[in-house]
Structures are given as structure tokens and as C-alpha cells.
Amino acid sequence: MHPLLVQYRAVVVKEVRQTMRDKRVLALLTVAPLVQLFVLGFAVNFDVRHVPTAVVDRDRTQESRAHARSLLAGDTLDLETEVGDERAAEQLLEHGDAAVALVLPPDFQRDLLRGEGAQVQALVDGSDPVRSATAVDAVARHAALRAMQRLRQQAEARGEVPPRPGVELAPRVLYNPTLSTAVYVVPGIMAMLLLIVTTVTMAMGLARERESGTLEQLQVTPLRPGVLMVGKVTPFVLVGLVDVGLALAVGAWVFEVPLRGSLALVTGATLLYVMSTLGVGLLIATLSRTQQQAFVGGFLFMLPAVLLSGVLTPLRAMPDWLAWLTWLNPVRYYVEVLRGVLIKDAGLADVWRQVLLLALFGAGVLAVASRRFHKTTG
């Protein structure tokens, strides 16, 4: 066997044994990502249901009560309480006891019977924009539906043909028919957890060896810096692939994330992504002298990387002056590949730009990290 291969195998075996002996690191690399995937997969949910709602019925007629009951019949709005006036409703919103207050005005039934428009007011707590927008949309859709039903009833009572809307919407949702949040979020959580496992663990592991003097002992051996670096990185690459495989299984089994695309393409993109994240971890380690510095450096990289990746918020919602930073973020490209391949059955022809940019970023950061590693170990 070639001497370089012998050295490489020795470093890999040493790293694997060291990792297996440290139960805390082993749990961090295997068990912790699965636990976090379970917790975050259920916790991160953009589906808005059961919004606490107060009702102010100032008409107190059969029509107003029927209107309120039908509006609260779905699972979006839940009746919390009924109050007598708008001031009391505003106090409920102020104290957080309700998020929406529906105000049915006086003469609500009389105006409807006369064929005049009856206006329902919705007081909404805007401190939670997602919940507020969903609640307003639910009230608006219900008002439009009730208005159309009322017009049809009046036309039938007069013996006329019920009017038809000029445009009818026929929605058809592709790829995620149930609009499940988990289908969209879980691939992003996978990328985020893999970033934590590889970047932070790599940075802190190398910093720990520098603190304990193990790295200095390796410097006096015949090992070449390149062989030492590749040998240290290899176990983390394997751990990353295992973690992604476990995450895909959990995502498909527990959260019903589809596996429509090529798993070979996912594996290739994962290798490029891990190359990028390990390169960042290696670079942070070469710039740190203690584990605390490595941890802080990893955290300072991870936080903006996750926020600028589109994992939780859409990239199109970011201002232009900030959006350009996402082009320097490997997490963004990996998330786009996962969502495209797993959910939409995208092929290499569809995601080649993301794969290419992952490769370029990984090669660039590994080149810089390798240069720094040679300087610190040479």
C-alpha cells in the first residue's frame, strides 16, 4: 500500500476511535440531530388554526347569530368569548386573551333584508402578522361566500335565475396538495442540522486538539499536513451522509415528506454541501485558539447562514441590499436542491446552478482552509 494511503488510514482510524470513545460527541453527531428534527419538525408550523376570537353582536338577531356561527364553524377561528362593545373587545386583544374580534353592527339583519350591504368589522391583533393575515383572509372569504349565497337566495325568492360570478377560481395545488408546513420546512431543517453537526463539531474538535497538545504531537510525525487534514475530515463526511439518510427516513415516515426525485442526486449534493460546511469549520478552527473561540465563530457563521437561506422565510421577502448576501450562502443552495429534488422530482438539469455553486463554494473555502491549516501545522 502506498505510504500516503497508510498515513491516511491511520489518521481516519484514530479519528473514528477518538469519536467513538467520547460518548458526548457521538451523541451530538447521531442522536441530537434526530431529536432536533423531531422537535423542530413539529414545532415549526406555519398552519394557522384555532385563533382565539371574540364576538361583539350588537344586533342580536337570528341573522347576526347565524352569520357568527357560520364564520366560527371552521378550524381557523375559535370562539373565545362574547362581549358587549368594541372597547371590551379591544381590551381582550390588548391583554392577549383574543387575537380577533368580530363586530356585527346594529341593524345587521334589517340591512340584509332590505338588500343593502351590511358591514362586519374585524379587529385584529397585528403583532403576529402571519396569524393576522390568515384571520383577515378567513373573514373576507366568508363574507364573500355569504354575500353570494344571499344574492342567490334573493334571486330564487323572486323567481329569477341566480347570478353567477364573472370569474370562478378553480385551485389545484401541486406537489403539496395538503399544504403541509412540514413538507416545506423539514428539508430546510435537515440542512440546518447538518450545518450544526459538521461546522461546529469540526471547529471545536480541532480547537480541542490544539488546546490539549495532540495537534502539536502530530506535527512532529512524518504525516503530511494534507493527509492529516483529509483524514480528519473523512469521518465527518461519513457522519454527515449517515445523518442525512436517517433524516430522510424520519422525514418520509413521520412528516410524510415525499421522496420523488433521485436519491443519487441528493447524495451528490450532500457531499458538496458537507465539503462546504466542513471547509468553514476547518477555517474557523485555524482562526481559533480555544474551543470557546471556535464555538463562538461557528455560531456567528451559522446564525446568518440559516436566516439567509430561505429555511424559514422566503428569500423574495428580503430587501435587495440584503438579498445579495444569500448568493454567498451554501445553505441556500442545498435547501433549494433538497426541496426541488424531494418535493418536485427535479433533475440535474433543473438544479445544476445550485450544484455548481455548491461545488465552487466548497472548493474555494477548502482551498483557503487548507492553506491556513498548512500554515498552522507546518
Describe this structure in words.
The chain is α/β, with parallel strands linked by helices and 378 residues long. It folds into 2 domains: 3-44 and 180-377, no CATH class; 51-157, abc type-2 transporter like fold. Helix content is 67%, strand content 6%. The chain contains 15 helices and 4 strands. The protein has helices spanning 3-21, 23-29, 31-43, 62-71, 86-95, 108-113, 129-157, 181-212, 214-219, 225-254, 263-286, 291-307, 320-323, 330-344, 348-377, and strands at 51-57, 77-83, 100-104, 121-124. It has a 4-stranded mixed β-sheet, with helices on both faces. Helix 4 links the parallel strand 1 and strand 2. Helix 8 (181-212) packs antiparallel against helix 14 (330-344) and helix 14 runs antiparallel to helix 15 (348-377). The protein is elongated. The two termini are 25 Å apart.
